[in-house]
Structures
1.
Amino acid sequence: MNLVLIGILASEIGFWVVLILGLATRYLLRWRKVSTILLLGVPVLDVFLLSLISWDLLVNETIADFTHGLGAVYLGFTIAFGRQIISRVDAWFAYRFASGPEPKAPPKVGIGRVKYEWEQWLKMLLCAVIASVVLVAITLLVRDPARTSELTSWLARIWLVTGIWFIGWPVWYSIGHVLRGPESRSSG
């Protein structure tokens, strides 16, 4: 079994376990300090995964494969979207277990939807930048293009997805909003 793939799966499972434990501690047991300490474990998982990828390539002298690149993208995703995911789960948990307000869904139409799509794409852009920096940094640390060519190919994948996301969502919703006329501009 691929060590980096196990690390990615462990990080993802760990993220949800730490998140649920942290929120359960906050809302069910009312131990806010313990909850905060538990939730601080989320970034530790990212450090673990980055260390594992680096160790595998530098110490084990492994040839980078698909999972090494996937790990870098996973890191970018968790840093760019992690806070939003945690906030949404926290809002749901507060609603379900602590009589909090019902969580709001993203707007479906209007300028609110356009703004939402641009915010999401900016997070994707941040994800792409972080993943690219990680991929380039590891490639430079390894100093062996023959062993890191797969990491370089991930750069194209990341930016292709970012470009498709750009056209398919924020640009598409912006154009649709303008074309629908003044009545749609006042909603949202």
2.
Amino acid sequence: MALDIEKLRALQPQAGLGFRIRRLGHVVLQVTHLERSLLFYTQGLGFKVTEIYSEELQPGGFAFLRCHADHHSIALVGTGAGRSRHTELHHIAFEVGSVEEVFAMRERLRERGATITFEGRRRAGCQIAVEFLDPDGHCLEIYWGLDQIGASGYVRPASEWNQNSRSRRRQSGNRPRYRHSEIASSVKGFFYNGTKKRPARCRR
């Protein structure tokens, strides 16, 4: 049965729930070798270790990692049965502060021999991103410039998704304004193997 896109877009939370989720708190991944994964996430991605559970407390060990003031943003449990098969979790994304940091992360990943599955501008959301695999095959994304939705609820239409010279829209109640000079030159040519295509793994 075909999806009714307009019906799905119209879905809204009920009034009077009594609560509101503020943000995504943390993600916990099963990994096959905790030390190997800790090296990747700390030395490769820059996370800091907050706490480690011994194998007595948690079979395989349990590592809590942070990237800001929260105790942990991601955690790793060393009980994975094998490489990720991408049957449930699609990918996890981490924001950085500038497009230059996205490029720096890409170079860091290349230096460490990571498998990069996508680099360029995404469609919905229009962020500049690099997607890659961790040692267990989990798909991760580093991004900058995700569209922000203001009080009016206006969302950039699909006809503007591929306008590569346009950056993050400012959060306001009006139609979005774009800052051309910030990324126009640096984004040119920033695509996987010179195209917007990538391997079927983690496709979206």
3.
Amino acid sequence: MKPKPRATRSKLTIDVLVDSNLWTKPGKMRSVVRRAIAQAATTQSTSGSELAILLTDDSAIRQLNRLWRGIDAPTNVLSFPAAAKRAADEPSHLGDIVLAYQTIAREARAERKPLAHHVAHLAVHGFLHLVGYGHECDADAEAMEQAERDILHRLAIPDPYRQRTTKAAAKRPVPKTAPRHRKTA
């Protein structure tokens, strides 16, 4: 599990660690994640900052979810914003993002989208949490979703929130109070 740091055009240092053999194409996924984060970083003031991304599995993310959020279940992405600024002469650490292979792969299959697109979306989602976006209320969720759409559009990735018209989706009832955005972290 050796990090491979790489500076992007925005001078954001992105360390991607692979901690599960389930990520069968780790080089490709590192590239997907770095590209997505680099694009997201162009929309924020992140120059001179760094972040870490961990590509892991459902077991590891379940433990983190239980420890930090009190939820004993795996999730697709968790974000851990850095608690404090470092010294003035050190890079600012934005935080860490954790992505779980099985949950992400299962969601991508269910939504009939390429795994790389879903990974990129969740990396962007996690990054936006690190820079202060949230989805606790509808207005915040809408702002975050629009930011995600804009970033993903620049990556030529279709809108992840666009409703697909499938037989399965048509059969599922949607409650009137359903949240617009499934809570990840």
4.
Amino acid sequence: MAVVCGIAAVPLLIGLAVGALFFVRSAQSSVTPVQCNLMNRVEIPNHPELQFHRQPFSISFWFRTTTQRKYIAFIGKRVHGLGDGWVVGCNEQSGLSFYTAGCASPASSPQQFRDGKWHHAVVTRADQTMTFYFDNRQVGSGPDTCDHNEVHPLRLGMDFDGGWNFEGELSEVHIYNRALAESEIAAEWNGGKPRKTAVPGGGLIAGYHCDQQGGQFLDFSGNGHHGTLAWSKIPAEGQH
């Protein structure tokens, strides 16, 4: 299952929902995503479990895009471009990045992901170091000494209204309260097929297949961090 955020083309239309929402099927793995236009996101209310502070954590997710947007926010936890919070995204060199306003912005080397194929990304923090993985390869690291104590909602597909909104698909977002080992990152990679369960070592805070059920995006971790589809009234940065 996946969330589609503003992607220009989808393989097969199989249904029509409210407004501009469509259900489509991926040629790779029978995903049934929700399509949007740079204006919507999955929003999860803040909770102390989603505030990392200075502790280790990992965020694993799958994405697909052909966007040429300079900056991308895959997942964010901020509500203003100049405020506190963080963003997992990519920078102008197409490197994976973890941006925290006024603190740190570690990034990976440039990656080739704007090809319309599914890719897997993982960011982990351990001992004040952020490490990036792309398709089961370690592709960079950098310091992250920040105290991630923001109280904003968690957002999939967008950071703040009018920000670096993602244009593409997201699937299998898994958030852990520890740094995954490389063997566990390989388990999340799962031979190139999105893993639909947590790795055996535990620590899953929230997990999303990114399929909509009864108007909600359910957290399969059992911790109850369910999300809903939200819409922005402000166009994405650079959108015309």
